[in-house]
Amino acid sequence: MNNIELSVELGKNSYPVFIGKNLLSNIGEKIKSFTDLNYAIIITDKNVEEIHLPIVKKSLEDNGINPRLHIIDGGENSKSLETYSKLIEDILEQGIERKTTLIALGGGVVGDLGGFVASSLLRGIKFIQIPTTLLSQVDSSIGGKTGINSDYGKNLIGAFYQPSMVISDIDVLKTLPSRELSAGLAEVIKYGLIKDRKFFDYLNTVIDDIQDDDFIEIIKTSCKIKADLVSKDEKEKGVRALLNLGHTFGHAIEKYCNYDGTILHGEAISIGMVLAYRVGVIKKTANDQDLEQVIQIFKLAKLPTKLSDLGINFDKNKLLEYMYKDKKVENGKLKLVLPNNIGDAYTTSDFNVNDIQFIWENA
User: Fold this and answer.
1) Which of 154, 190, 240, 255 is the catalytic position?
2) Fold of the domain spanning 178-361
3) Is 330 a catalytic residue?
4) Which of 30, 132, 144, 254 could make an S-S bridge to 162, C-beta 3.0–4.6 Å?
5) pLDDT (tens digit per residue) in 83-115
6) CATH 1.20.1090.10: which residues of the chain?
7) What residues contact 95, with CB distance under 8 A and at least 6 apart?
8) Which residue intervals of the chain bear CATH 3.40.50.1970?
9) Reduced to 3 states, what is the DSSP secondary structure of residue 56?
10) Catalytic status, residue 52
11) Per-residue pLDDT at 2 exceeds 90
12) What is the mean pLDDT of residues 295-321?
């Protein structure tokens, strides 16, 4: 399969998404067309610094662009006010212009943090997403959600700020630990569950032995679904909320573990999506067969489907409490994304909190 270019259509904020092989080594040429400065800011983490940064750095330098490097610790704990503040001050100390381009080279943490930094500097400078995990290639690099975590919950501080370009090189996926790859598949499966039954069925046939062409197809389809929802609802006031299937449950699990990396985002939301289907079964919008198919595909992807898979003794009341501190609370009412069936979902506040407590107690 050849390399692919998609577009996220947002009027003057539209941008291309490039998907394919051997993109990192040619990245300087693409970025040269976005800046006439002789430098670019790169934010990355210590893991990416060793593996992918040398390739990107050489390509930039070969095209006359001097990379100014800012290296953060890996992991969700870097999405903090402390890291954000330090990056802002360090970048300003070096000096920037309104034409400056910031490159976020890394997974979802680097992309979320780097995008928020870019949105804040001089009230907004250009930034480019170069996602290096499957999860960030299919989800967080698309759509312009940027931000950091608070003591009170995940991604509660941030901005909608679209990138100028997204470059997803599938070659980087070969360097991922199998656990990270599985975590990314959770977001991929989500797209089939909320919008595309045929994609869900396709995933069932390839998910335990994914080849290069499959990865290009998986990333392309995931990005198309997300781009379509973002184009219709950039600021998440309507249909874009469907992308949160399982996330309110999953964010509670992540918060319980203080974002310390014990549980990966994809692992938390795989359980969250199973729990959403369990609520659907109670409400009779989904059936037991749907639930079993969902559990089965997560197992094929080597993802957890119940809390006991995580080996942690959770306080279920705390998990319920954390749900109500999530962003999806309106007028004191929690909004959930729930399934109608596989390939269709909806948002609602019409559920019994006792059912949610029962779901947690039996998770």
Assistant:
1) 240
2) Dehydroquinate synthase-like, alpha domain (1.20.1090)
3) no
4) 144
5) 999 999 999 999 999 999 999 999 999 999 999
6) 178-361
7) none
8) 4-175
9) helix
10) no
11) no
12) 95
Q: Is 284 a catalytic residue?
A: no
Q: Please say whether the structural domain 4-175 has been given the CATH code 3.40.50.1970.
A: yes
Catalytic annotation present for 123:
yes
Cβ–Cβ contacts within 10 Å for residue 225, how many? 21
Tokens 């929802």, residue located: 229
Pairing mode of beta strands 145-150, 153-160: antiparallel
265 catalytic per annotation: yes
Mean pLDDT lowest among 4-18, 30-44, 92-106, 179-193: 30-44
Please answer whether residues 221 and 199 qualify as being in contact, where contact means their C-beta atoms are separated by less than 8 angstroms.
yes
Nearest to 347 by CA among 238, 272, 235: 238
Q: Model-level pTM?
A: 0.92
The secondary element (H helix, E strand) that includes residue 228 is helix 212-232
The catalytic position among 217, 236, 254, 267 is 236
State how far the Cα of 121 lies from the Cα of 68, in Å rounded to an integer: 15
> Cα torsion for 240, 244, 245, 247, to the nearest 10°?
180
Quick one: tokens of 87?
A: 């990056």
DSSP 207: T
Confidence of residue 32 (pLDDT cuts 50, 70, 90): confident
Q: Is 226 a catalytic residue?
A: yes
Whether 70 sits among the annotated catalytic residues: the reply is: no
Q: Is 50 a catalytic residue?
A: no
